[in-house]
Predict the structure.
Amino acid sequence: MFGSLRVRNYRLFASGQVISNVGTWMQRIAQDWLVLELSGYDPVALGVAAALQFLPTLLFTLWAGVLADRHDKRMMLILVQSGMAACALALGLLDVTGLVVLWHVYLLCFVFGMFTAVDPPVRQAFVGEMVGKDNITNAVALNSSMFNLARVVGPAIAGVMIIWTGTGWVFLVNAVTTLAVITNLARMNPAELERQPKPASRRGQLREALRYVRTRPDILTVLVMVFFVSTFAFTFFTTLAIAAANVFHREADGYGLLSTLLAVGSLTGSLLAVRRSTRRAPGMRLLIGSAFVFGLLEALTGLMPSYLLFGLALIPTGIAMITFMNTANSVVQLATTPEMRGRVMALYMLVFIGGNPVGAPMTGWLAAEFGGRSPFVIGGVIAALAAVACGVYLGRRGGLITRLRRSRVVAGSEVSREEPAQV
């Protein structure tokens, strides 16, 4: 289950990520709560902050994929993480000194979003360099487990810290935890990375990636489904805060507890994904099924009558959510040739995150107009319908078997990219 950890570079990466991700989740909770406090608990303001943070993804992520294929990914990650730490430090100092106003948060959300637009495609492509093709699925699942372990711990700590010290010190803690990633990236041995030959710098490399995806219906189907599910259903960064404050009338610790319960489900789903990675490669059947189940569970969660039942329903919702996320990531990584991986993963992150500038304000508007439960119900229904539509499309292309042209390992032997994969 933990085979990727045998690689020293990946161990350094993983340990730094665990520490940093705790701080990242603490900041996310504190930032949402600070926006609510500064705006008079306006759900639209929370949606605007989320939109500004994710807007740079639309502008820079595809170009980040081109840069990832051309340049040293490790050095790029060091620069990006340094920028994230600087943003957290600036917001923390403004907050603890009492100078922060809402437009400060909006501005720093946008600047922070510029760095987060570059980070995911570079980081995702860097995983393959650290562990090699045979361990990608395992490493993706382990990354998700570490991310969601931090998601269990971070919100709970943040909720308590906000009550005791205010939001400012949470941002400062995140700035310090980011140093763990930077330090461990610097400690890696570059000679042990499995680097691919860098493509020559030339015009049209972004268009080349788009043409490549258009010729791959397997990858294109995943991207379409990811767009609809992430834009309309992966809105917990705004909906949970709205539900805690406006539906169940809880304080910051109540919001943190809801985030932790969702993370418990996500962590459970991540560990199940790690175990599955030792048995077989992920397929489209699991991808479509998990998206459909996630949509239904999210809609049901939105209908729960009490705070306790709402929180408990987030656990199975988190399991289905992370199963979908991990499967989509692994399918795309395995289906993509190494020399195109940085650009294709940038496109993947664009559709995964890029819908948030639309989805986040829409979530705030729905909550303001129809109540804090409506984003859960409507988003869940859209996710389930997207899964059904993609399932029907794939069914028409070949029953329940789709050609996934990718390399995978079965019983220790390599299978041709052109071999049909059971889904």
Residues 26 and 158 are 5 Å apart (CA to CA). Confidence is low (pLDDT under 50) at residues 399-423. The radius of gyration is 20 Å.
